[in-house]
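A favour, since you know our structure tokens better than I do. Could you add the entry underneath, on a fresh line?
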Amino acid sequence: MSDHASDFVLQAISFDTLEGWKDDDPSGLFEVMRCCRRQITDVKPYRAGSLGLSSEDLLPLLIAAEDFTPSSPASARGFFETHCRPFLIRRKDGNPGFVTAFYEPEIEVSERPDDVFRFPFYRRPDDLIDLDDGNRPAELDDAYAFGRRHDDGRIGAYPDRRAIDQGFLEGRGLEIAWAKSKVDVFFVHVQGAARLRYRNGRIGRITYAAKAGHPFSAIGKLLIECGEIDRAEISMQSIRAWLARNPERVDEVLWHNRSYIFFREAPSRAICLRTADPEVGPIAAAKVPLLAGRSLAVDRLIHTFGFPFFIRAESLTHLDQGRPFRRLMLALDTGSAIVGPVRGDIFTGSGYMAGESAGTVRNDADFAILIPNAAAGRFD
């Protein structure tokens, strides 16, 4: 799917016609919105996507939210009704939007390797460089955002998952911690963050720092095409079960996804929050904490972090006790598999149960973006 704005349109609608809006309670978003404002004003603005919305367009909403404390779900909705206008995002080819979900795994790790803890999480290597139109070699596709600078100054592709698994980075002191399972490490790469539980009881966090640059290739798609798992049964759980039943083929399947993720250690909680909310997740691409059930990963080539999106997925019922998923969310993260104007990834939280909830989310969805009033006139 292209990221060009010509592939979709924004259709102005009213809150009265936004199905499910009146039943939602977006009260939990205000603290994270305050974090977004601090990031924009004190650190740096978010990069604007091709839709044309900027951090400057978002700031009036964030400033108004700074000292607003909702007294009820209705007052929280009223705040957005006062300060924003909703626009339905419609693809010109008529296809619906689509949501999946992600979570923060909790992994048992060791600070030192041994016969049990053998599989590392790596920090970003110093020979991994950011690529742009000025330094990208002609043989590397424009999709490559990272490459390797050799000792002689040449720039090329970075070694892929197979090469790194086979020891390319060993001996360079890049290991953050070691896990018991190569499959666990792989799925942390897919999620982009993890909570680490060390053997002495200490809890740490890691989050995405960079990637080797190769395209993401879904191993679920591979297993479907090979006839190993039926398309209707594909999920994180079914993929894990297949890998557990076929240990001799684990490397073959995991190496199909040449993409490799590097991590950095992250604070255990966000200092921008006034309270310690147990539902607050890791710091993600927008540099603010993710809130379970209220944070959305989007295509950052199109959308700009911090903007509110109302997501309606009628067939997604297991996240809301059997009711259709209809929630206001903030765009706070991105991912290499999240491509297109109406493609989103819902953050479900941290730990095993959050993973169980996330692993089976694959649902059609409607996307409405809430645009602050001053900027909304440009899209009428």
Notes: The mean pLDDT is 93.
